[in-house]
Amino acid sequence: MLETLVDAACSLPPLRTAVVHPCDPASLAGALQAQMRGLMQAVLVGPRARIAAAAEQAGLDLTGTELIDVPHSHAAADCAVALAREGRVAALMKGALHTQELMRAVVARESGLRTARRMSHVFALEVELYPRTLFITDGALNIAPDLLHKRDIVQNAIDLAQAIGVDTPKVALLSVSEEVDPAVASSVDAAALCKMADRGQISGALLEGPLAMDNAISPQAAAAKGIRSPVAGCADILLVPDLASGNMLVKQLVYLSGARTAGLIVGARVPIMLSSRADGVAARMAACALAQRLLQHRARP
User: Fold this and answer.
1) Do 288 and 300 form a contact (C-beta atoms < 8 A)?
2) Which pLDDT belongs to residue 54?
3) Which residues in the chain belong to E strands, given as ranges?
4) How far is CA 280 from CA 78, 156, 277, 283, 300, in A?
């Protein structure tokens, strides 16, 4: 599914993207391979000598690729964010720097890329035993979101799912069970989010919750527990209670089930491709394809 997304995105205009501090072979190769496929026009932002060394180590050719020489990773993050604010690039891609370094520049109140909506991270996963792209949020950015943060996190994920063609995404709001329990904050938040969707505070999707993981993705588990819902057993989007649970869930799917994944930060002025240092070229290209589709979706009247 993710490869199909990449193939389709190759027919779109390349996305001019600031690649932030691509000073290791993995991040540099991901950017240059995406550029070769026509997914992006890369603007490499980082120390010229270190980028050149990474290119030599990986046998990559930088000829014809724009490079902005800055002294270190902090400067690279600041420069890339400035390029996005000025409209000189349409997206950012994280290279060989810590997420906190990049996000420090992104969330700066005066010079960053904030919008009225809270930023959040969405994983898109291709899981062999699941028949659709599975979106999991937020397992990389918001540590312990409150109810209003979760509203924005859900809406960001809905927007991304719609961008790749899921017209009315089915959102499962995860907790430990399908029962509302005042002692379990995630179950109370899930019930409140469903009511917010009823009142139009969240739009474009079907929400159900609280749901446990099994009855969110397994029709058999939902039926066994007597849960009648168009979402239960066939969710497109999983809202996790907090960053730790989401991060562990995604890594379990990747390392125990062989899932393929791509990650994107949504809710900023531009999409931000937030690949893990362990991600390969395919994950980075899929993230670029997601960013392209999201921007195309935003541009629709």
Assistant:
1) no
2) 94
3) 15-20, 40-46, 66-69, 91-94, 120-126, 134-137, 170-174, 206-211, 237-239, 260-266, 272-273
4) 25, 25, 8, 6, 31
What tokens does 40 get? 């992006």
Interval 78-115: pLDDT, tens: 999 999 999 999 999 999 999 999 999 999 998 999 99
- For the chain, how many structural domains are there in total? 1
Has residue 9 been placed in a domain?
no
Which residues in the chain land under pLDDT 70? 277-278, 301
Residue 25 domain flag: no
We report the CATH number of the domain holding residue 213 as: 3.40.718.10
CA 107 to chain centre: 16
